[in-house]
Structures are given as structure tokens and as C-alpha cells.
Write a structure and sequence with these properties.
87 residues, mainly alpha
Length: 87
């Protein structure tokens, strides 16, 4: 895990194990692809503070579009709609 986001260092193998546990969670689901219209995603992109958040903003919008939540450890993304900050 990125220590700047999670504030902990864990070995890659353990990170993969955690990822697998999340994928195995019955609430986990894959979302079908869709390309947003500029008007739809404009509100989300208006809330980001830099170019490094573009992908995260798109994923947060994507989750919201599908009625899902975007889970993250990155507190800088908490102002995006659909984001749930894991602590």
C-alpha cells in the first residue's frame, strides 16, 4: 500500500491478500463500461484540486452513475460525490 495514503506499510503479498478479500466480498461488483457525457462528469471534475485526481474523479463518478460507492483510503478525495473514506 502507498504509505502516503494508508499511513501503514505492508508487504505486497499482504496487500494482494487484502485485495482478494475485497474482491470476494459479496457486496463487490464489477461495473459495465460507459463513457460519460461532459455535462455529467463536469460537476465531479469541478471538485478536484489537481491533475493527479482526474482518474479518481472519473472512477468516483463512474461508481455513482452505477449506484455504487467509490471506496478509498485517500482523504484528499473525500469531497467527491460517491466517495466513502475508509479509515
Amino acid at each position: 500500500m502507498n504509505p502516503a495514503l494508508a499511513y501503514v506499510k505492508i508487504p505486497a503479498g499482504e496487500a494482494l491478500k487484502l485485495l482478494q478479500e475485497m474482491l470476494d466480498d459479496p457486496r463487490h461488483r464489477y461495473l459495465d463500461g460507459v463513457t460519460p457525457a461532459p455535462i455529467q462528469i463536469g460537476e465531479v471534475f469541478g471538485r478536484i484540486v489537481g491533475h493527479r485526481q482526474v482518474t479518481d474523479a472519473y472512477l468516483a463518478w463512474y461508481a455513482t452513475y452505477h449506484g455504487a460507492k467509490f471506496l478509498t483510503l485517500d482523504a484528499k478525495l473525500r469531497n467527491l460525490p460517491g466517495v466513502v473514506l475508509l479509515t
